[in-house]
Amino acid sequence: MKRIFQFITISFVTLGGLSMLPANAQTSISVLTATADVRSAAMGTVPLVGSTLMPLYSTPSAMFDLEGKSLQASYAMGLSPEKSHSGRQYFHTLSAGYRLSSKHSLLIGARHWGGLQMDYFNSVGTKVGKIHPRDWTIDLGYAFALSPSLRLHAGASYLNTYSSQTAHGLMMHLGATYLGRLSFLNQGRYALDFVARNLGPKLSYGQRSKSSAALPTYLQASGMMNFATAEHQQLTFGLTARYQTTLTSDRAMSAGAGLEYDFERIVALRFGAVYQPESSYLTMGLGRNLGPLSLGASYSWGSYSEFNILNVGIALSF
Q: CA-CA distances (angstroms) from residue 4 to 7, 39, 144?
């Protein structure tokens, strides 16, 4: 056990150092920062244990909570309801996970973001046309149940991003989830999740270009608790805090909180809020379970309507 924790600590420090290499520019790279899991998106972006909508992009160890099922596939789409002068942003996410045993799970997925357009100028400032920025990734994940209470997860991603020039990148994530029981609450339990995402060296936009960009590396700590309020009814509450290492100190911190009320395991009502410097927003959503099929929708809105996002998702477990 001691060696495992030493390995995790060394990996975080080493890879975190790689991700903070100096860069001449930095970008949010929307496909890496968008919340693909619809349940989390409705609850203030809190990564939730037990979420079966998009485990790979929320908490991969949730694959162990499929209640007797071993295979899960999901799709989610996000769309900005309001079209701005730059277009209408959207993203698509596909993922699948397979639980090999009670201790091992493998996951795979892909993400795509696009929809906007920008004016393109040559070196002397003359407009020569338009460009359509877009990002896409291919992602792999692995979850390991070290014990009934402690789960570890890791993953790797390939990124292709384009904004007048194309850059390629490799990155990884490392995380751990701890589960516990709340004996003083009816069927109560809690979970703590720690993860470092988008760990990797800076992106370089081709051999001829001198521009580069740092990945949006962030460290995230989250906690959630749920308990039964009545027979077949459950309340879930979660908190999360995120520190993005590649932003200036006055913009690096963000936080979120979410609440879910699950009624009769048929429909779930979800609400949340996200604090970010200069761009905080509220979230809400619905969820519905139909046997092996899970459906979800969420909406986030804030001061800048062009950044409001409507998410819909579907997941099938069998």
A: 5, 31, 12
Residue 26 Cα distances to 30, 56, 146, 214, 245, angstroms: 12, 25, 37, 5, 11
Closest CA to 313 of 34, 72, 93, 49: 93
Q: Strand, helix or coil at 53?
A: coil
Measured distance between the N- and C-terminal CA atoms of the chain, rounded to whole angstroms: 33
Q: Give the span between the Cα atoms of 152 and 285, in whole angstroms.
A: 29
Pick the residue with more confidence: 188 or 260? 260
The whole-model pTM stands at 0.84
Enumerate the β-bridge partners of residue 186: none
Please give the structure tokens belonging to residue 154: 């890791």
Dihedral angle computed from the Cα positions of residues 53, 282, 260 and 197, in that order, rounded to the nearest 10 degrees: 40
Confidence of residue 207 (pLDDT cuts 50, 70, 90): low
Mean pLDDT is lowest, of 10-24, 47-61, 116-130, 272-286, for 10-24
Kindly report, residue by residue over 110-167, the tens digit of the pLDDT: 999 998 888 877 767 777 788 888 999 999 999 999 999 999 999 999 999 988 788 9
If 0-12 CB within 10 Å is exposed, 13-18 middle and 19+ buried, where does residue 150 land? middle
DSSP result, 173-233? EEEEEEEEEETTSTTEEEEEEEEEEEESPPEE--SS---EEB---EEEEEEEEEEEEETTE
- DSSP-derived pairing of the beta strands 127-131 and 134-145: unpaired
Phi-psi region of 291 (alpha: psi -120 to 50; beta: other; left: phi over 0): left
pLDDT digits 0-9 by tens, 17-31: 333 322 223 346 889
Helix (H, G, I), strand (E, B) or coil at 7: helix
DSSP-derived letter for residue 278 is T
